Amino acid sequence: MTNKTNVNPTKVITGVNTRWSYANVWEPKSINGSTPKYSVSLIVPKDDTKTIEKIKKAIEAAYVEGESKLKGTGKVVPPLAAIKNPLRDGDVERPGDKNYANAYFINANALTPPGVVDAACNPIITRSEVYSGVYGRASISFYAFNSSGNKGIACGLNNLQKIRDGEPLGGKASAEMDFATAEDEDFLK
Questions:
Q1: Alpha-carbon distance 118 to 91, whole Å?
Q2: Residue 177 pLDDT more than 90?
Q3: For residues 143 and 180, is the Cβ–Cβ distance under 8 A?
């Protein structure tokens, strides 16, 4: 039995219906010349209230843990509602994108590669098995930041567990999908 008193209050394991988008889990990617990072956007359905509640509590815990960092040279800690929050509403920020409809999303990143396993916790080695659109769980941790005038709570990416395949996001079909229904148009005639 796990001892709950040693549980990190800023760490969350998402539910199995979390969908991965912009999955850069094999090679770090630089955005606008920044330090290259491994990253994934986690799309969490709004009806997964258990995961959403765990995320909100972890964000609050990161806020409390990071009060001195958030205060910086100021006299007071800015209220949580006034700083950047990693839990974002897909209906508000991505209107018209059916993949983000009725869902929240969180961008998680890390300087080191995340562990990536399948549903049976076996390491996934074949890179094509992990793509934007799969469903799975994510181990993420929240922390406060105060950098160049930007203050908020960020999300670190720990590990990923693929539970099942999903329709690839981005509109690109896999080779298997393209050729499974292709007609043998005079092939080798």
A1: 30
A2: no
A3: no
